[in-house]
Amino acid sequence: MAVKVLIPTPLRSYTGKNDIVVLEGTTVGEVMNHLTTTHSGLRKHLYSDDGKLRNFVNVYVNDEDIRYLQKENTPVTEKDVISIIPSIAGGKGEKT
Amino acid sequence: MINIDTDILEQINKLAQQAYAEECCGVLLGKDDGSAKHVLEIIVLPNSKEDERERRYLISPEQYKAAESVANKKKLEIIGLYHSHPDHAARPSGFDLEHALPYWSYLIVAVEGGKPKAVTSWVLKDDRSRFDEEKLVVIKQKVEYHRAE
Question: How many domains does chain B fold into?
């Protein structure tokens, strides 16, 4: 089943500058796995070394965060759109 | 390399000053011609971090989606972010590195005792090992200014 994935600006250099890629899969996890095998440079930015989604990477199915659905087991169909949405964090770090 | 208008830079400095001793944050909108990024507008965002705003900032997914929608309508790209470091150097921290994404320019304003000082811009290395400082060129060009909700 082909599902659309929306790619945020900073990751488009890994998808040939495409903002939308279409990938096979019946769950979010399957589609994300195809995404990071097809566009392998993405993996280190989306997943930490232990294979978990980085905490600032949010994956939505349509308008729902998969953390509140079935996480990476969330089923998807051709009608769904998966979006990768960063939450952007930073700061000087140390207490002063 | 990133080009920024002197008026936009002044605006960011003022925002950093107003937010002191907390960190300010926002989005850089513009274009990338392949050889340089050009900041054409900024979107000022409230720091969504609920605590420790004196050393942390957060742009939520909802804020990001709204900013991307503004960028699309204006046919511009989110080319980077700005934030301030109150009483701290204009250099990215380990926390900045841990949470960074590639390609974007991370513009940092050091604010010492409430006064904006050094401004630098940084880009994450592809292997995520560190940031590289990029050349920041201050120029004069036509600007627009947008404030998000």
Answer: 1
Structure tokens belonging to residue A53? 């989604």
The answer to whether B122 faces chain A, any CB pair under 8 Å, is no
66-95 in A: which are within 8 Å (CB) of B? 83, 85-95
Q: How far is CA B120 from the centre of its chain?
A: 10
Q: Using one digit for the tens of pLDDT, what is the confidence trace for B12-30?
A: 999 999 999 999 999 999 9
ipTM of the predicted structure? Answer: 0.91
Chain position carrying tokens 């589609």: A31
8 Å CB contact of A85 and B65: yes
| Set of chain B residues whose Cβ sits within 8 Å of the Cβ of A62 | none
pLDDT tens for B101-113 read 999 999 999 999 9
**Model confidence pLDDT, tens digit, residues B22-59:** 999 999 999 999 999 999 999 999 999 988 898 999 99
Which are the contacts of B135, defined by CB distance < 8 A and separation ≥ 6?
B1, B2, B121
Of A11, A58, A96, the CB nearest to B101: A11
What is the third-level CATH fold of A2-86? Ubiquitin-like (UB roll) (3.10.20)
Residues paired with A24 in a beta bridge? A2
Identity of the residue in A13, A58, A91 whose CB atom sits nearest the CB atom of B23: A91
Provide the token pair at A86: 């960063």
Which residue segment(s) compose the domain that B98 sits in?
2-147
Domain limits of chain A?
Answer: 2-86
**Residue B70 belongs to a domain with what CATH number?**
3.40.140.10
